[in-house]
Design brief:
Elements: E1 8-13, E2 16-21, H1 31-46, E3 52-57, H2 80-88, E4 94-98, E5 101-103, H3 104-112, E6 115-118, E7 123-125, H4 139-147, H5 149-158, E8 162-163, H6 164-170, E9 175-176, H7 181-195, H8 214-222, H9 229-243, H10 246-261, H11 264-279, E10 297-300, H12 304-315, E11 320-323, H13 327-346, H14 352-360, E12 362-365, E13 376-379, H15 385-398, E14 404-407, H16 414-419, E15 427-432, E16 441-445, H17 452-464, E17 468-472, H18 480-497, H19 501-511, H20 517-524, H21 526-536, H22 541-548, H23 574-586, H24 596-616, H25 623-634, H26 643-650, H27 652-666, H28 675-682
Parallel strand pairs: 2-3, 3-4, 4-6, 5-7, 6-9, 10-11, 10-13, 11-12, 13-14, 14-15, 16-17
Antiparallel strand pairs: 1-2, 7-8, 15-16
Helix pairs in contact: 1-2, 2-3, 4-5, 4-9, 5-8, 5-9, 8-9, 9-10, 11-25, 12-13, 18-24, 19-24, 22-23, 24-27, 27-28
The chain binds acetoacetyl-coenzyme A.
Amino acid sequence: MGSINASVDLRRDGEIAVITADNPPVNALKHEVRAGLAEGLKHAREDTGVKAVVIACAGRTFFAGADITEFGKPPRAPSLHDVIAAIEAMPKPVVAALHGTALGGGFELALACHFRIAVPAARVGLPEVKLGLLPGAGGTQRLPRLVGPEKALEMIVTGEPIGAAEARVGGIIDEIVEGDLTAAAIDFARRVVREGRPLRLVRDRDEKLIGEGFADAAEALTRRLRGRDAPAACIEAVRNAIVLPFDEGLKREAELFGRLVGGDQSKAQRHIFFAEREAAKIPDMPEATRSRPIAQGAVIGAGTMGGGIAMCFANAGIPVTIVETGRDLLQKGLDRVAANYHTSVSRGGLDASEMERRIGLISGVTEFDAIAGADVVVEAVFEEMDVKKRVFADLDRIAKPSALLATNTSTLDVNEIARVTARPQEVAGLHFFSPANVMRLLEIVRGAQTSFEALATAIALGRRLGKVPVTVGVCYGFVGNRMLARRSVETERLLLEGALPQQVDTAVTAFGFPMGPCAMMDLAGLDVGWRIRKGRGEQALIEDALCEAGHYGQKTGKGYFRYEAGSRAPLPDPEIERVILETSSRLGINRRPITEDEIAERMILPMINEGARILDEGIASRPGDIDVIWVYGYGWPVWRGGPMYFADRLGLAHIRDRLAFYADRSRDETLRPAPLLRKLADEGRGFAS
Ligand code: CAA
């Protein structure tokens, strides 16, 4: 409890007024905080004994931004703009003391102060674009004045924060301090007073507002927008900083912010922000459940997946041992890992010493006993039940009792795997997506007997590896791939009925996916699914025909598309089209022209239908979990909020009717509206209800 209100405290340290906010967990700038700040600033201004002001935060971070839960509700004064205006009107120096992550409105508040000091680990940034917004409290006008328009544009359009050292070099931070931050900020404020330093506001600095290079940078970014409104608005706002006077730029920023915050894209992105955090919570998990510490990892299998998973551990600073059966296979795997790291260094994404440190954390062995000390073992061997069972029987013999035993299977029954051990409660699935070191999604598969402790450990590990963990139940393909399978069936059907791969892919990329299903299958390799289908006695006529013609995708230079040597650009190819046309004619199908709208509908609605079944069966706990899986694992456009959110926007009654139409037309009962979807549609409700 502070001296001003429950969230804000004001105290005097000699001639320095110290305003401290405390609104756990991230000091979001909710109404009470803003009111407390405004009140504290007023007192400090009126108190003639006060010569300077420090604004600091208690807890783990400086203000991490506006309170996102307040968006869409009626605004309450004072606004963040009012607080910022009070800071700028202060005739005494105001020093912001930054730690943790000063983000969004929090960073914008700091930008309005006369000085900013920070601890070495502090990070600052304007991540609003990730919520489908632009910085709405002057960030688009002040940051370009501090660091120049080009750097500001990069920070605002990517939304990525930067560290204190970089911010110091760029002129954002005046001083980096060690030790007690508030004490250092008070010292700093005293020095400013003593030295009579001039109080120059960022808004009055114009010397860095040089437009050179901006147009090219803006154009390059505009080309990558893919339907998103927010980055375009960010670009416009930063351009305004160069061409308009400060106050006009600010006014225009507010208009753009107002349009975005009320728009569909930002609503969808805010839904994903909260759904992502919700996904880390298990509804029936007792609150007292603790995760176990993880100091050492092991990965079984040095293939592409195993190597990528080992990189995730090393990137998070966790030592990891890769176990492979033969020396040659092991060396090949380790070489692939090293090559991946070297590529990152050559592209400037990693410095050489950091690469050495990470490679140093990965060791390779051929003796299974080496996993005895591991806190988590991730099995990433060939996708065959018998092979996996043999590995788990060995793990059960050798791994320490508290180890989390995880399988990276993408289809197999985790319960059946767990049953070969005497400790099924320690077994779970950790389904990484390819490339494992890049993709953010981690499906955590909860077996029938997985303990809460093992589950909590898996979730904590996922977060530590920088992943977005979503817990799912056991079924074929779990959530993501099970829904994807519906899209694959429909892709095949569309190709048989009259569409060509480029038409299907165009409809899907126009919807906002980075890649269409055909290009995606070419990237993954058509032969993988072909082998699985053969094992299950299933068929996919066109894909099987392509595989039989030796077209496995990018790796053979041909799949659904043709690829020139060294290029990943999919090109239509007459020979491939001939295979497709011949398959249709062999089946006696009269091909017909298919519209882009029909393709888009048939790519999306059957997946939603499967999502409804997944929810009904309890394989996913919440519709938001499914949305998060699709956004982070499959490139669903975040501004459309995920398939289940999208379905609610579209209206379930409409979806029910369209699915019924397609089920009748193609005589495919799997397209028939799922019971849950039908029930909700009949009741006029949505999945979110
Ligand atoms: N508003 C409301 N709640 C927020 C919040 C915000 N800005 N930021 C985080 N939270 C909540 C989360 O929902 C979560 O709540 P639960 O515990 O109930 O799930 C809790 O705070 C902790 O968040 P995380 O789990 O994400 O914690 P973390 O330590 O992993 O990450 C963080 C901390 C980096 C600050 C991260 O929460 C984050 O990136 N937050 C969003 C920052 C942001 O986008 N700021 C800009 C807001 S928009 C704005 O400011 C507009 C403007 O220009 C005026």
